[in-house]
Amino acid sequence: MADGRRSNERMTDESTVILAIETSCDETAASVVMGGIDVLSNVVSSQIDLHAVFGGVVPEIASRAHLELLTPVIDQALREAKIDATRIDAVAATVGPGLIGALLVGVAHAKALAFAWDVPFVGVNHLEAHLYAGLLDDPNLELPVVVLLVSGGHTMLIEMRGPGDYRLLGQTIDDAAGEAFDKVARFLGLGYPGGPAIDRLAREGNPSAIDFPRAMLNDGLDFSFSGLKTSVMNHVRKNPEVSTADVAASFQEAVVDVLVTKTRRAAAAVGAKGVVLGGGVAANSLLRERFAETATVDGRRALLPSRAMCTDNAAMIGAAAWHRLRSDGPTSLDTGAHPNLRIRFGES
Ligand code: KG4
Ligand code: ZN
Questions:
Q1: What is the Cα–Cα distance from 316 to 168, expressed in whole angstroms?
Q2: 126 and 22 Cβ atoms separated by less than 8 Å
Q3: Is the separation of the CB atoms in 54 and 124 below 8 Å?
Q4: Predicted model pTM
Q5: CB 303 within 8 A of CB 134
Q6: Mean pLDDT of 103-108
Q7: Which of 127, 151, 155, 309 maximizes ligand 1 atoms within 8 Å of its Cβ, making it the mutation to test the pocket?
Q8: Rounded distance, CA 130 to CA 141, Å?
């Protein structure tokens, strides 16, 4: 075991080049990352237009689109990185969580390339990869940090003590934050994806117009957003003349209030040096602003990865893969895709 670990460390150093693939949902992405930190290329082809007409991601359409887009996206990632395929030391792909058909396209492709090029395959957990987006921005980030991971499928507060060393502090007991944005936007007729639409419209509304509930605000580190969604619907049904911009702004205010309050509480509880945002909802303007402001007040470093790094991309897969290869070595080619994959959390 000890020998294996040493040889893995030799296999991964600052010159190790990984081709990473991400196809867990509706973005087809490929990236070339050197040494787990140096992003040589980061290509994302969004399928949003294909799904928007249906008001949400259609799994079958996503799988077919990944099949068509993946080869050109990988070619572009290699071209932009200005490297030849022979320079690739490992091929990584998201193995879960995500849509099974979508995941399988990326996993099968990555395994085939790894086999053909005779290099290791590395299976990556998509959620764990979101944690690395912050470290890609600042590799010298002082740990431990508390990461607020807010995406379409997850809302989690995680203490990150080091690569591979995480502790779950809190999570949603019902809807994810992004899911709440998407469902409320759909109800308000704002289209898909809902987060960016609400973010835009909220700028024209009054955030204090409606006092929507902040569920579990003073109660631990877990979240609940399904009551808020229902409350928005009830309010609009009872007040059909209400300004949609005011509803969007007040809803966003309630979500951000809860997310920031709990992050702050979590950071204080574990004595975190900093707080990091991750996941698609981390692209939200108000959340970014409040998150940074509050951290400054508390004397903590706030790390806000660029919007491109917060939403789904393959650079974060390449970063996570480098650490995974270093600690665990290659992933077996027998590995499949795991739609409900979880992060491996340590004890308190
Ligand atoms: O991490 P991500 O790209 O995909 C998942 O792994 O889920 O997150 C997508 C989620 C969607 O729910 C989308 O509405 C939300 O992130 N989102 C936003 C914003 N941009 C994307 N939510 C609020 N404000 C935004 N600006
Ligand atoms: Zn994601």
A1: 20
A2: yes
A3: no
A4: 0.90
A5: yes
A6: 97
A7: 151
A8: 15
Give the ligand whose atoms come closest to the C-alpha of residue 283. Answer: 1
pLDDT band at 6 (very low <50, low <70, confident <90, very high): very low
Statement: residue 3 has pLDDT above 60: no
Nearest CA to ligand 1 atom 14: 195
Q: What angle do CA 167, 221, 130 make, to 5 degrees?
A: 50
Could you count the other beta carbons within 10 Å of the beta carbon of residue 329? 17
Distance 35 CA to ligand 1 centre (A): 28
pLDDT at 5: 41
Question: Are the beta carbons of 91 and 18 closer than 8 angstroms?
Answer: yes
Average pLDDT, the chain: 92
- 310 CA distance to ligand 2 middle (Å): 8
| CB-CB neighbours of 347 under 10 Å | 4
Q: Please state the rounded mean pLDDT for residues 246-266.
A: 98
Mapped to the 3 state alphabet, what secondary structure does 13-64 carry? CCCCEEEEEECCCCEEEEEEEECCCEEEEEEEEECHHHHHCCCCCCHHHHHH
Average pLDDT over residues 126-135: 90
> What are 46-80's pLDDT values in tens digits?
877 777 777 778 888 888 989 999 999 999 999 99
Give ligand 1 pocket residues (Cβ under 6 A): 25, 151-153, 178, 181-182, 193-196, 199, 279-281, 283-284, 311-312
Q: What number does the ligand 1 atom closest to the CA of 279 have?
A: 1
